[in-house]
Specification:
alpha+beta, Alpha-Beta Plaits, 2 domains, four-stranded mixed sheet
Length: 295
């Protein structure tokens, strides 16, 4: 079992625990804002299950029908997360609009807020783990789950502060306003998750900083070649696909050109995890004099 799958299973367990705690807090207080917080946790459970499915599929080795692997399954999971987040926001907005014209009187607010705070602390700790490990493992599913949890933590802190203000001032209509604010916050979070995932499905190029790093590696490890050009790279889940043209002297033997390609492939794979490199070798008259100059 890979570390990514273990983290995804952990997300499912944490999501169920936090949902149970937040549901208790809502039942204790009758707060619409805390209800919205609990409803968002239902989305957390669904997205954690989707992320678990995605990372398990992404871990399946390449086969005849999927020669490039199954890495993009993680993007489908992230898109689903974004859609679920938007649906939750719509339900919260509906509940908030009803409560705005009929503000509920909060019951047992102090114990309820304490219970809700416990759920927020658990979420914050797991969010930090997911974002840290998701970046290290380059997993879109774990990163999407972590970013959603981050928005949940932020909204939970805002809800707690707002409910406290409602209790102190007696302005119970603030409860509905806070619920609406939570909905807007998670709508933005959902849009960000969907946007990033669609970019991956559309084979967006890797960031410019990553391309610059690849150019430096190629320039430093292509001794014997003339230049490299038409460098392209994309992410597919945790995998990275790199391809470029390598120009070599026309009189160079196939063996010598192949040795350079092996050296370049090894350098790129050492620097970039799960990297697949494709190099098209060309004779000197194909040089464009505008690509990567070999050092």
């Amino acid at each position: 079992m890979t570390q990514t799958i273990k983290l995804a299973i952990g997300s499912v367990a944490v999501a169920f625990v936090v949902l149970a705690i937040k549901t208790v807090a809502w039942q204790m207080t009758g707060s619409v804002a805390l209800m919205s917080d609990a409803l968002e946790s239902i989305v957390n459970v669904a997205t954690a299950l989707a992320a678990l499915w995605a990372v398990r599929v992404a871990a399946i080795p390449a086969d005849e029908r999927h020669p490039f692997g199954h890495h993009k399954a993680e993007y489908f999971s992230a898109v689903l997360e974004g859609v679920l987040i938007v649906i939750a926001a719509v339900f919260i907005l509906r509940a908030a609009s009803v409560a705005l014209f009929n503000p509920p009187v909060l019951m047992r607010p102090w114990p309820g807020l304490a219970v809700n705070l416990l759920a927020s602390v658990i979420n914050a700790a797991w969010c930090w783990i997911l974002l840290r490990q998701g970046r290290r493992l380059r997993s879109p599913a774990l990163l999407a789950d972590g970013k959603h949890l981050l928005s949940d933590v932020v909204s939970s802190v805002g809800v707690t502060a707002g409910v406290l203000l409602a209790i102190v001032t007696g302005w119970f209509w603030l409860d509905a306003v806070l619920a609406a604010a939570v909905a807007v916050n998670i709508l933005w979070s959902g849009w960000q998750v969907i946007r990033a995932s669609v970019g991956g499905l559309m084979d967006e190029s890797v960031p410019l900083a990553d391309l610059d790093e690849m150019r430096e590696l190629i320039a430093a490890n292509a001794d014997g070649a003339v230049e490299a050009h038409d460098l392209r790279a994309r992410h597919a889940g945790s995998a990275t696909f790199v391809e470029f043209h390598l120009v070599v002297p026309g009189e160079m033997s196939v063996d010598a050109a192949h040795d350079i390609c092996d050296r370049l492939e090894a350098a790129l794979k050492a620097a970039i995890s799960q990297c697949t490199v494709t190099i098209h070798v060309e004779p000197e008259h194909k040089a464009k004099h505008s690509g990567i100059v070999v050092l």
